[in-house]
């Protein structure tokens, strides 16, 4: 027994060290890293669900091991004799029905409360972005921000030289209003740990087409269309740039100003370049490419 214990401890240690996981990664149990407060809540649900599953698992594995190791048929036992029977044992059967029910209810309770926290909407979000999806591009409108030099709403649309850039502030409540102008698309930023279909007529489909989140760190994150929407679906990418709140305010200000080189209001990439905030503001993405409009290129 002592040797078995030593070997098991050694195997556990090798498994822990050889995988190279940090403490944080171990507790994440494979859950992807999220960058929003909502993602953190979902992660806690996942972590505790796995811990609960492991506790149940260890008890079940223990019972299997215990009964197969210590309740083998004795050497000289009567081969026709049955082991002790437990059918029609009312307390035991009640226990076997009630306990799983309690477990399901606890899991359901935490799933439902986490879901309602993730989908919760504050009445006055700090920033509102209207997300318009169409074959095969994205448009991001800022209806609540200042108008540009031409008196128009600030809009970002992807072009063949500029990926659609969704610029948002860190630490603020952002509301995304989703709408498609043609087929069903899906707004997905893997780092948000969140995805939602974009419908042409959300109200006709009884769909809640808006959601809110709060990004907790600056960074650039790839966004994708996650609903097969036609030939160039795979190119329907965008990029989220989460800027510190003061940089975001400067970004919006730059969007309202005219670029002397073009005589037009600054585009998203031009405004980011003018911000000069290092890698975060590099006008072109490293992980996504602008949509190539040349249909003979591939
Ligand atoms: Cu799409």
Q: What composes the largest sheet?
A: 5 strands, mixed
Question: Kindly state the mean pLDDT as a whole number?
Answer: 88
CATH architecture of the largest domain: Sandwich
Ligands bound to this protein structure: copper (II) ion
Poorly predicted runs of 5 or more residues: none
State the name of the first-level CATH class of the largest domain: Mainly Beta
Helix content: 25-40%
Distance between the termini: 65 Å
| Anisotropy-based shape | elongated
Total count of domains: 2
Structural category: alpha+beta
Helix and strand run = HHHHEEEEEEEEEEHEEH
What's the alpha carbon Rg, rounded to whole Å?
A: 28 Å
The CATH homologous superfamily of the largest domain is named Cupredoxins -  blue copper proteins
Total strands: 12
Alpha plus pi helix count: 6
């Amino acid at each position: 027994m002592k040797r078995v214990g030593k070997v098991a401890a050694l195997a556990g240690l090798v498994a822990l060290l050889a995988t190279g996981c940090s403490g944080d990664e171990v507790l994440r149990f494979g859950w992807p890293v999220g960058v929003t407060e909502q993602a953190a809540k979902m992660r806690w649900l996942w972590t505790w669900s796995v811990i609960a599953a492991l506790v149940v698992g260890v008890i079940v594995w223990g019972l299997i091991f215990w009964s197969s190791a210590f309740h083998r048929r004795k050497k000289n036992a009567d081969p026709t004799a049955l082991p002790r029977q437990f059918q029609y044992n009312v307390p035991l059967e009640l226990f076997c029905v009630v306990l799983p029910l309690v477990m399901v209810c606890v899991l359901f309770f935490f799933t439902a409360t986490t879901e309602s926290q993730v989908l919760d909407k504050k009445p006055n979000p700090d920033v509102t972005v209207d997300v318009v999806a169409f074959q095969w591009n994205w448009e991001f409108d800022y209806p609540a921000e200042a108008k540009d030099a031409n008196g128009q709403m600030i809009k970002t649309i992807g072009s063949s030289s500029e990926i659609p850039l969704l610029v948002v502030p860190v630490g603020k409540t952002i509301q995304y209003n989703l709408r498609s102008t043609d087929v069903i698309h899906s707004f997905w930023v893997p780092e948000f740990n969140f995805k939602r279909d974009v419908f042409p007529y959300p109200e006709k489909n009884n769909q809640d087409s808006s959601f809110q989140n709060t990004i907790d760190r600056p960074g650039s994150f790839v966004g994708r269309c996650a609903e097969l929407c036609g030939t160039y679906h795979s190119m329907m990418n965008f990029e989220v740039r989460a800027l510190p709140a003061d940089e975001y305010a400067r970004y919006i200000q730059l969007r309202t100003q005219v670029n002397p080189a073009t005589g037009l209001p600054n585009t998203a990439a031009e405004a980011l370049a003018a911000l000069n905030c290092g890698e975060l503001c590099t006008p072109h993405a490293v992980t996504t490419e602008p949509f190539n409009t040349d249909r003979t290129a591939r």
